[in-house]
Specification:
488 residues, alpha/beta, Lambda Exonuclease, Chain A, Nucleotidyltransferase, domain 5, seven-stranded mixed beta sheet, 17% strand, binds iron/sulfur cluster
Length: 488
């Protein structure tokens, strides 16, 4: 038997389904914070989408019990079911919303997804549901997707009718049914195979979802492997290299690489040396005008807007860290703001920031497009700060570009220009490893806990300190990386 979620795994990679069936013990014990966020968002959005159907009832139970309860609810006259469940000898599926239509005398399926658009994987998901429910004896009319309408702007209470968007996928699914049935047969056969399938790793491990078996499947890959080359390689090239037994970046034939990024990365791995383009670094650094304002924001992007004026998934800038250096070699000053309450932080944060920016200078950030975007949105929300944020954006310097443009390339950056990869190589004394919060995703999710009134004060106080330390390190890291580059 195969369930809908297992078939989705098969669709991503048939080895994923096989491992899930036969080597489940290899799965990590905990789900990643990123995955947990996806689940939480999904459940939350679903609860709002269900409000569209006030007469809907939830089918309780799991597996056979849910199948029986679905039949029972229909027999009792219920015509809108949440989590209706169907099972055949080989298939098992649940439909988020199952609606009877008197005019068509058919059941209609509505899948709820917290994404903002239709994705290919949703079509596979719905095709599987249709096949399973029809095989179980239900006549299916339309198949549809309810997803997040990211144009909705909150004003007062959440309007679930505006928060949601409906798309009919009946025609697309009908075109797919034959292929999906064919794949279901193949997936069923695979679940009876005793041998672990041998497959080539191309691009399937992170798309559409990050596969939890990565640490198992990738264990024999060398540190500098072809999957990590800067800029990435096409599926065809990866396949060709693997056919030739090439998995180490240093073994890639030189004429194989076309982008500047990949050529430089290949060079530093092959010759085990660092490439430093001093004239270009110097040219970039000559653009800096003191005082230097090293700035970093942390943001939270909830699916259901928390405050008026926000759209679904629109970022809330809840924290800033600012290191200020008035002149070369002058004392470094640090300022910070972290909102502890569940309120729109824009005004308090803007006020704090404006107080600290006393003279025109250069703002330095890492991946400035992010900070600039936040500034633009805050300026729109607070017109009285529009000029302040626009001036800041006009004098923003993106320190990451020195690495992205290939002016400094080290093989231990692993083809990345992320501060998390650059910092340990250039400034090993500074490290995220000793912090309780080590990456932006966790910092972002921490804000939901920090502002949750139901959480213990002691837990929140500790989290507050951890969040401050994390954001401070982000700006201090830029200070030290700049110092390193200036010394060159
Ligand atoms: S890690 Fe990649 S190759 Fe291994 S099962 Fe997952 S998707 Fe397939």
């Amino acid at each position: 038997m195969i369930s809908k979620s297992q078939f989705i795994k098969y669709f991503q990679c048939y080895k994923y389904l096989w491992l899930y069936k036969f080597k489940k013990h290899l799965l990590p014990e905990e789900v990643s914070s990123q995955q947990q966020k996806l689940f939480d968002e999904g459940y939350l959005f679903e609860s709002y989408a269900q409000k569209i159907y006030p007469d809907g009832i939830k089918v309780e139970g799991m597996f056979d019990e849910a199948v029986a309860n679905t039949k029972k609810a229909i027999k009792e006259g219920h015509r809108i079911l949440f989590q209706a469940t169907a099972k055949t000898k080989t298939l098992f599926a649940m439909a988020d919303v199952f609606v009877w239509n008197d005019t068509t005398s058919k059941w209609h399926i509505f899948e709820i997804k917290s994404s903002t658009e239709v994705k290919n994987i949703h079509l596979i998901d719905l095709a599987f549901q249709k096949i399973c429910f029809e095989a179980a004896g239900y006549e299916i009319g339309s198949v549809n997707l309810i997803h997040v309408n990211n144009k909705y702007i909150k004003k007062g209470a959440i309007d679930h009718t505006k928060l949601t968007d409906f798309v009919s996928l009946t025609k697309d699914i009908d075109d797919l049914i034959k292929d999906v049935k064919f794949d279901i047969d193949k997936a069923l056969k695979l679940t009876e195979e005793p041998e672990e399938p041998d497959i080539k790793i191309l691009k399937q491990c992170k798309s559409p979802y990050e596969c939890p078996f990565i640490s198992y499947c990738w264990k024999d890959f060398p540190k500098h492997n072809i999957h990590n080359i800067a800029g990435g390689l096409s599926v065809n090239k990866l396949e060709d290299l693997m056919d030739r037994g090439i998995i180490d970046i240093k073994d890639i034939p030189e004429d194989y690489l076309t982008s500047k990024k990949s050529i430089l990365h290949h060079k530093v791995v092959k010759h085990e040396k660092t490439l430093i383009d001093k004239p270009n670094i110097q040219k970039e650094l000559a653009k800096l005008k003191y005082p230097l304002y090293f700035i970093d924001y942390e943001t939270y992007s909830p699916v259901i807007p928390m405050f008026d004026g926000y759209r679904p998934y629109q970022r809330i800038v809840f924290q800033v860290s600012l290191h200020v250096q008035e002149e070369p070699n002058s004392e470094l000053k640090h300022y910070e703001y972290l909102c502890r309450d569940k309120k729109d932080p824009t005004e308090a944060l803007s006020k704090e920031l404006q107080k600290r920016v006393t003279k025109p200078g250069t703002f330095i950030s890492w991946n400035a497009v992010f900070e600039k975007g936040c500034n633009k949105e805050m300026g729109i929300r607070l017109p009285e700060y529009q000029e302040f944020y626009s001036d800041m954006n006009n004098s923003m310097f993106d320190l990451m570009q020195i690495f992205r443009k290939g002016y400094y390339v080290d093989r231990d950056f692993h083809g990345s220009a992320s501060i998390k990869k650059v910092l340990p190589v250039l400034v090993p004394k500074l490290s995220y490893k000793d912090l309780n919060i080590q990456e932006g995703g966790t910092a972002s999710e921490s804000w939901a806990i920090l502002t949750d009134q139901k959480k213990e004060q002691q837990e929140k106080d500790k989290l507050y300190t951890d969040m401050l330390k994390y954001c401070e390190l982000d700006t201090l890291a830029m200070v030290e990386i700049l110092k390193f580059l200036q010394k060159l």
